[in-house]
Amino acid sequence: MSVLSDHVDVIMGQAPSGDQYNDRGEGWPLIAGAGDFAGSVPRPKKYTITASKLSRPGDIVIGIRASIGSKVWSDGEYCLGRGVAALRPRETVDGSYVWHWFEANRTLLESKARGATFLQVNRADIAELPFEPPPLPEQRRIASILDQAQNRTAKSRDLKSWLADLEFSVYQSFASAGSGSVRLGDLACFVRGVTFKPESVIDPGEEGALRFMRTTNVKDQLDTSDVKAIAPSVKVREEQMLRDGDILVSTANSWNLVGRASYVGELPWPSTFGGFVSVLRPNRASVSPRFLYSWFTSPRVQSTLRSFGQQTTNISNLNTARALELRVPVLNVEDRERFENAIAKVDGLRIALCRQESLADELVSTLRAQAFRGEL
């Protein structure tokens, strides 16, 4: 049986020495992990003056830790860090075909993940994936059809990015007109997540199962597509149950992901959160939860939070005590209400767009399934 490495070179990333990093644009842009992905291309935050593993234009760069199987096109030469690998198609395969095939088989790779702290896959897990490509002209025909379908979803994502920019502009306009600032600790508190043993993780459909969020769920919008559950024997305090208006924060993660946050709205089921995330819980009498979320996820605050990270061997831990000393702009009651009304309009547009995107994604998934069953 043919495997992926018979047709594609698999280049595993390697982290440069920490003293080689910089944010001045010197050397190669560094793709440390999936946190440096933006849409279908890399968007690195750091550079390195030494690099042992480099991508080439046309490589497919995939996440191999935490966000396993997420991917982008390499549009230049990048340093490949520890959290990624590059797939370099040979002459026998079409790059776009490999891209779509990999998406269709992502769950197979995820099933091979292992690790006590972060799930990850190794080179053999990737290289030994079964891969039987058809002749090159047929690959190109299939890839062309799937590319056209995916372009529709890409347009929706461009609109989502525009909505995110619009939401930030709304935040900036209100923040600049605020009346002074106060400590974050005067407006909100951090609640640490539940700790439990791996054997306590059960299927969400089992009796008494309680769903929990983890770092994988923390994205620009809270991702509830892959939620696991814990057994009823795990002790969970009332304050550790997620509430509408909470801000779910990644507090133990790769350096570039620590501090990343998702806003928690109404959930379809009761849920708690695990030990590598925390909740920033606003005092609604003092601050608008959405305003606090916009402040917390602003580029300046995110950069400051990452600088507070306490680095261990592979993980950066958010220093929540220092975070609580940061200053937050203050809005009066009238401006809070006006801000919430403006954000509600943005949310309405986002909901409509998500429905369209869901339909487009469903179309692409259906076409992919047909393509790799030989029915397209």
Helix content: 25-40%
N- to C-terminal distance: 23 Å
Overall body shape? globular
**Strand fraction band?**
15-25%
Mean pLDDT: 90
Q: State the major sheet.
A: 4 strands, antiparallel
SS content category: alpha+beta
Strand order of the largest sheet: 1-10-7-8
How many helices in DSSP terms? 8
Low-confidence stretches: none
Radius of gyration: 22 Å
Number of strands: 23
Q: Can you give a write-up of this model?
A:
- The protein is of the alpha+beta class.
- 32% of the residues lie in helices and 20% in strands.
- It has helices spanning 95-104, 106-110, 123-127, 136-175, 289-296, 299-307, 320-323, 333-371, and strands at 8-12, 21-22, 28-31, 37-38, 41-42, 46-48, 60-63, 71-73, 79-80, 84-89, 181-183, 188-192, 201-202, 210-213, 228-230, 247-250, 252-253, 261-263, 271-273, 277-282, 310-311, 316-317, 327-329.
- It has a 4-stranded antiparallel beta sheet with strand order 1-10-7-8.
- A hairpin with a 2-residue loop joins strand 4 and strand 5.
- Helix 4 packs antiparallel against helix 8 (333-371).
